[in-house]
Design goal:
It contains 14 helices and 13 strands. It is α/β, with parallel strands linked by helices. It has a seven-stranded mixed sheet, with helices on both faces. Helix 8 links the parallel strand 5 and strand 6. The longest helix has 25 residues. The two termini are 34 Å apart. It binds pyridoxal-5'-phosphate. The site of pyridoxal-5'-phosphate has 13 residues, from helix 5 and helix 6.
Length: 426
């Protein structure tokens, strides 16, 4: 199909898009900027900016310490309940606070301590490096008798269900995976994998960082035991906004919090000397929440709940399929290797294109030296250009232009004008 046909198609798809109205609820500093990195840092919801301004000036500035009772003490409960709704959990199974890494540490520690003699921790080489570091540290410092087994992906994209099944046995203490892989966008079948682990009585801990707000989740329906996830990606909570965790009600008694801080106490403001955890996921909190970044999470979650995750998923796949259609014939000849699952049902909301010149191509997209519009994807070494499709603010027209820019940069080799990789945050 020729370029003009795609342009026309994009216009029609946008006109009939039930989520199109959400775009104007986000801040757009530069209307021309095409942002395809919401899987790393989501856009700013307009209402978040207003809310934060009020919280800073009125709640902190004027009301000072009185705001703890007036607003702040109830904030984490309220937002945790909304995240619970978004991921198919009950309100008392979700805690919001700390970072994803810290929450993973707490839950993996709690799960391993509860695993008795079982020795193996299973994960894969597609997992986020921080997750692997934390597991390595837990084994070497606290559980030297246990062993980390890292499943290898044959194609660098995914790990099939049969391979996971083959690794599970009666010695498995914990299976922990990213539901959607950060680089390839590969999505595990959460229901099936959880079922296989439970057949061996092993606990399962999912990292939902690239899944929450990107794909519909049903933590209860899947039977999953535990999860962690971040809120600054598809939930649009802002840089470093607090992470969340989920622990299924029935196993909360078994899985203790290794950081027994006062905010994880049943009555923190009694200031009593002995630790008594509450009967809810609040026991996985530790210290005082960062109120400003916590408050920044709420609007992003509200917007997703209002849109509905089924609609979000429909458009997410619509966007990635439209993008790939446009690249179809061009991609291979231009030297791109698909770094994402071919089957759309097996991917999250981002894709990864591999190219030996991936870094310079992504620089050329981000910082055009001519009048072209900037397109922001991100780059993950060694050769992955990641493109995130966020249905609440990404239009089909954005995707059309991004694909055209990509074709142009590779065809005219304008990426050769850019330096090789040096930046800290690629
Ligand atoms: C983004 C991401 C994280 C982030 O961890 P932080 O501790 O919040 O920085 C963790 N795990 C995965 C899979 C991620 O994609």
């Amino acid at each position: 199909m020729d370029t003009d046909r795609y342009k026309e198609l994009a216009r029609n798809l946008d006109r009939n898009d039930p989520l199109a109205r959400f775009r104007s609820r986000f801040f757009h500093g530069d209307e021309n900027l095409i942002y395809l990195d919401g899987n790393s840092l989501g856009r700013l919801p307009l209402q978040t900016a207003d809310r934060l301004e009020k919280i800073v000036r009125i709640q902190w500035g004027e009301r000072l310490i009185r705001s703890w009772n007036e607003h702040w003490l109830s904030l984490n409960r309220r937002i945790a309940a909304k995240i619970a709704e978004l991921i198919g959990a009950h309100a008392d199974e979700v805690m919001i606070g700390d970072s994803t890494s810290v929450n993973l540490y707490k839950l993996a520690f709690g799960a391993l301590a509860a695993a008795g003699e079982r020795k193996t921790i299973i994960t894969d080489d597609l997992n986020f490096p921080s997750d692997l570091y934390i597991l390595q540290g837990l084994v070497s410092r606290h559980f030297p008798q246990k062993q980390l087994r890292i499943m290898k992906s044959a194609d660098g994209i995914g790990v099939d269900t049969g391979t996971v099944a083959a690794h599970l046995d009666a010695d498995t203490a914990l299976l922990t995976l990213s539901h959607v892989a950060y680089k390839s966008g590969y999505m595990y079948d959460m229901h099936e994998i959880t079922r296989l682990a439970h057949r061996q009585n092993a606990l399962v801990l999912w990292d939902l960082s690239h899944a929450a707000g990107a794909v519909p989740l049903d933590m209860h329906g899947s039977g999953a035991d535990m999860a962690v996830g971040c809120t600054y990606k598809y939930l649009n909570g802002g840089p470093g906004s607090p992470a969340f965790l989920y622990v299924r009600k029935e196993i909360q008694k078994r899985v203790a919090n290794p950081i027994q801080g006062w905010f994880g106490h049943s009555r923190p403001f009694d200031f009593s000397a002995g630790y008594v955890p509450p009967d809810t996921a609040d026991k996985y909190a530790a210290g005082t929440p960062g109120i400003l970044s916590l408050a920044a999470v709420e609007t992003g979650v509200d917007l997703l709940l209002e849109a509905g995750m089924d609609e979000v998923r429909k458009k997410s796949l619509g966007l990635s399929v439209f993008f790939l259609d446009q690249l179809n014939e061009f991609a291979e000849e231009a030297g791109f290797i698909p770094g994402f699952p071919a089957e759309s049902g097996k991917r999250g909301s981002h894709i990864s294109l591999r190219h030996p010149e991936g870094y310079r191509i992504s620089r050329a997209l981000i910082a055009p030296q001519d009048i072209q519009v900037p397109v922001i994807p991100d780059f993950r070494p060694p050769d992955n250009i990641r493109l995130g499709f966020c249905p609440l603010y990404t239009s089909y027209a954005d995707v059309y232009t991004a694909a055209e820019r990509l074709k142009q940069i590779v065809s005219d080799k304008s990426y050769l004008r850019y330096r090789q990789r040096q930046d800290e945050v690629p």
